[in-house]
Design brief:
There is one protein chain. The chain has helices at about 1-30, 30-35, 40-60, 65-90, 95-120. It contains 5 helices and no strands. The radius of gyration is 16 Å and the shape is globular.
């Protein structure tokens, strides 16, 4: 299980770095034109979530229980933003099809990381690692 958590931590950190870079490029760089009909609230959420991805990855690497809660929160929040994006599309808002694919991937990746972290970082009540 330790190896699986290390792999999940690496995925989280890489995913976070890529998310911050791509979101930052759209929001602050020259990527807005290439992004097409992007949905601002989705890009802003993903940009800020990228920093949380990095934090969760570091926590998973260090086997901190709080990282499991953070991963679960990221999965839930990503799914909520994806649902809001779906509502945006349903009412006729402009969007890029690649956003559907990206949000599907993000939701599945964080649901998987959260499940792995939740079960991988469970410890008996009262153990010293409860304090971390």
């Amino acid at each position: 299980m330790r190896l699986a958590l290390r792999i999940a931590a690496g995925v989280a950190v890489l995913f976070g770095a890529a998310t911050v870079a791509s979101g930052g490029n759209v929001l602050f760089g020259t990527g807005a034109a290439a992004a097409g009909a992007y949905v601002p609230f989705v890009v802003w959420f993903n940009f800020f979530a990228g920093f949380a991805y990095l934090t969760a990855g570091i926590g998973l690497w260090l086997h901190r229980r709080w990282a499991a809660r953070l991963a679960l929160a990221l999965a839930v929040l990503t799914a909520a933003v994806f649902a809001a994006f779906g509502l945006h599309v349903a009412v006729g808002g402009a969007f890029e099809a690649r956003t559907v694919a990206a949000m599907t991937l993000r939701t599945l990746v964080w649901a998987g990381i959260a499940a792995l972290a939740w079960f991988g970082l469970r410890m008996p009540a009262g153990s010293a690692s409860d304090l971390r």
